[in-house]
Amino acid sequence: MPIHPSPAVLRACAVLRYMAAHPARSFTVSELARAVAVPRATCDAVVQALAAQRFVMRGEDDRRYELGPGSIALGEAARLANPVLSAAKVAGEELARALETCVAVSIRD
Q1: Cα-atom radius of gyration of the chain, to the nearest Å?
Q2: Is the whole-model pTM more than 0.70?
Q3: How confident is the prediction along the chain (109 residues), in pLDDT tens digits per residue?
């Protein structure tokens, strides 16, 4: 019998992925709900759970959410765990020094 992913976890991932695609913005729960196509009440529960774990945090006006420090820690851990990015970082730094310019390293998602 196949194991199916948790719908709540999939919704949380959708919220985080959407917010990561727009890192300079903050969102109301209604905006996030529309963007990821889930009911507002469901999205509110997801965002509250993410906020409790500091993956998102409320902005200054207490109505808008932005990515939180938990997301930074998770992203940094993922970067460190990826040997291709680690190797590319070294190569990118060497190239930047050799060319005396800025070099960006990324992966396709």
Answers
A1: 17
A2: yes
A3: 889 999 999 999 999 999 999 999 999 999 999 999 999 999 999 999 999 999 999 977 778 999 999 999 998 888 888 888 778 888 889 999 999 999 887 777 6
